Amino acid sequence: MYYRFGKVFHFISVLVFILSFLYIYASLSDIVAYQLDENGGFLKSVPKETFFYSGMIIFIVLNVIMIVPGKLIENQSTANLKRLFPKGERLSDLIIAWIYSFVGVINISLTIMALFIHSINNQNEISSGEFSFFFYLIPIFFVIWIGGLFWILGQKFKEVQSKSI
């Protein structure tokens, strides 16, 4: 049951990233700066198309790499996964939910970074200084989700250990 919440969160994060990334792409100029000097001039920049295609490739590659283990566990692709994460078990459900929600956290982080690039290039709409709160959120989300993974794995180790005794 929990894995459904993870899947919904992942789906919503994909939609949020795609919609915001398309909006950002449409509002950028032909040259996209990703680092400014002290005077506000472009220190490092790339063409608009390079920014778009590299952002989409990073997004797709991260999602595929991170979703494959969840799909393998969910579909019980190997005998070891069937034995370790049997269908219908609470911890199997939690690990699948964790994988999907972690990919959602990565997608939200990519969205925040894309919005930061947008704020650098469109200083009149949003100043880049307003993003400091969001940049603190990214590592906090990662620490919370990694802590959740260790808790799930700890519960699984206890379960396996109690079955072997």
In words, what does this structure look like?
The protein has 5 helices and 2 strands. It is mainly α and 165 residues long. The protein has one domain (2-164). The mean pLDDT is 84. The chain crosses the membrane at residues 7-26, 51-73, 94-121, 133-153.
User: What radius of gyration results from the CA coordinates?
Assistant: 20 Å
Shape: elongated
By DSSP, the count of extended strands is 2
End-to-end Cα distance, whole Å, is 29 Å
The residue ranges in which pLDDT falls below 50 over 5 or more consecutive positions are: none
Estimate the mean pLDDT confidence.
84
Level of helix content? over 70%
Q: What is the string of helix and strand elements?
A: HEEHHHH
Transmembrane segments: 7-26, 51-73, 94-121, 133-153
Organism: Belliella baltica (strain DSM 15883 / CIP 108006 / LMG 21964 / BA134)
Keywords: Membrane, Transmembrane, Transmembrane helix
Protein name: DNA topoisomerase IV subunit B
